[in-house]
Every structure is written in structure tokens, then in C-alpha cells.
């Protein structure tokens, strides 16, 4: 079955950096567009960044210039490098293979908590 395992989160001061990892299994990873999402307390889950099978990347405006998404198809793993972190980046971060529209392939993983202190 499809499984996503996110890791790399933690507590960091504003201005700091973290690198998140997403290990996927049960999918043909190399052919899928992968998205990183986040959900802050009391908020809806939002799409943060995507990377296509052809490594075309997109970012939500609030993270452009600070976050960088990448992938290693040999390891079926996607990464999210987060620099210049802000308190408003505090959230649980998830990854998933994207389908049409807002649908994902499989179910959400447990996510990884990112907390940015002021």
C-alpha cells in the first residue's frame, strides 16, 4: 500500500533552517508529482511546494525564495529545504503524490512538526 514517512522537523529559532525528508513507498515514485503540504493549528492544510517528474518546481508565494523542493528518485525520497524560517511557518508538514486537482495518491502520513520560535 502507499505510505509516506516524513522526518526532519523540530524546534528552530526564527531565521534558522531545517531540511525535511519524505520517504514514499508503494508508488512509482519517479513518475509522480510530489507535493509538500502543511497544516497549522486551526487552519486548513495548504500546499507549500511541488516538484514534477521532470523536476519542475512550484511554490506558494509565502515561501518563495526561502524553501527549495527536490527529489531523489533512486531513494523514492523528496526533500524540502527550509531557510530563513519564520514563526508563521510553524505547522505539521506532510508530503504526498499529487493527483488531479487537490487529490493525493493514498492517505496522509503522520507528518513532521516544525516549530519556529520568535
Task: Explain the overall architecture.
There is one protein chain. The chain is mostly beta strands and 118 residues long. The chain has strands spanning 3-7, 10-13, 18-25, 34-39, 46-51, 57-59, 67-72, 77-82, 91-97, 112-117. A six-stranded mixed β-sheet has the order 2-10-9-4-5-6, with no helix packed on it. Strand 4 (34-39) and strand 5 (46-51) form a beta hairpin. The N and C termini lie far apart (40 Å).
Q: Tell me the major beta sheet.
A: 6 strands, mixed
The 3D shape can be described as globular
Number of helices: 0
Radius of gyration: 13 Å
Structural class designation:
mainly beta
Task: Give the helix proportion (percent range).
Answer: under 10%
The low-confidence runs, each spanning 5 or more residues with pLDDT under 50, are: none
Strand and helix order: EEEEEEEEEE
* pLDDT averaged over residues: 97
Secondary-structure map with pairings?
Elements: E1 3-7, E2 10-13, E3 18-25, E4 34-39, E5 46-51, E6 57-59, E7 67-72, E8 77-82, E9 91-97, E10 112-117
Parallel strand pairs: 2-10
Antiparallel strand pairs: 1-3, 3-8, 4-5, 4-9, 5-6, 7-8, 9-10
From the structure above, extract its key features.
four-stranded antiparallel sheet, globular, six-stranded mixed sheet, 118 residues, 10 strands
Quickly describe the structure:
The protein has 118 residues and is an all-beta fold. It contains no helices and ten strands.
Amino acid at each position: 500500500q502507499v505510505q509516506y514517512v516524513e522526518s526532519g522537523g523540530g524546534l528552530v529559532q526564527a531565521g534558522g533552517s531545517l531540511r525535511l525528508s519524505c520517504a514514499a513507498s508503494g508508488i512509482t515514485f519517479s513518475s509522480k508529482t510530489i507535493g509538500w503540504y502543511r497544516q497549522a493549528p486551526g487552519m486548513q492544510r495548504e500546499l507549500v511546494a511541488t516538484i514534477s517528474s521532470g523536476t519542475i518546481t512550484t511554490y506558494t508565494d509565502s515561501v518563495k525564495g526561502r524553501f527549495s523542493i527536490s527529489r531523489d528518485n533512486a531513494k523514492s525520497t523528496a526533500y524540502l529545504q527550509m531557510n530563513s524560517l519564520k514563526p508563521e511557518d510553524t505547522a505539521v508538514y506532510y508530503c504526498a503524490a499529487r493527483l488531479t486537482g487537490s487529490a493525493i495518491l493514498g492517505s496522509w502520513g503522520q507528518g513532521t512538526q516544525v516549530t519556529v520560535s520568535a
